[in-house]
Amino acid sequence: MLRIGMIGADNFHALAFSRLANLPPEEGGSGLPARVTMLWGESAQRAAFVANEAHIHTVVDDPARMLGQVDAVMVVLRHGAQHHDAALPFLRAGISTWVDKPFTTDIGQAAALVAAARRAARCWRAAPRANTARMCFGCGTNTAPCARTAA
Description:
Elements: E1 2-7, H1 12-22, E2 34-40, H2 44-54, E3 58-59, E4 72-75, H3 83-92, E5 96-99, H4 107-120, E6 124-126, E7 134-137, E8 148-150
Helix pairs in contact: 1-2, 3-4
């Protein structure tokens, strides 16, 4: 089973994605062999709520505590300016990383994340914005073709 760490709890995505992974199909879950097993949130109160609602058993006080404990992370922080700092340690550690939109708010930080993913030969996925092309770059994985963009 794929163990996923969720970074961010303040927006709806943390709850929605965690429910998809953790709840049984009859309760709206996906039934896929993946679970959100760890969560960090900007607000301890919101993180506790998301953890309870989505059956996440471990809430951490620092996202770095997920290193070595998860197979993948999803960065769903409310502000794109925070995505680079949240995602980079996981990419450097070779952990597959999905980053919500906006990917970053700085082109240099975006380039640094792409470079880190390529060096680690891990898939990273940038969530699509409405009415824009979806981007996925993957190297050495079967989850996404390398350097592919599709409308």
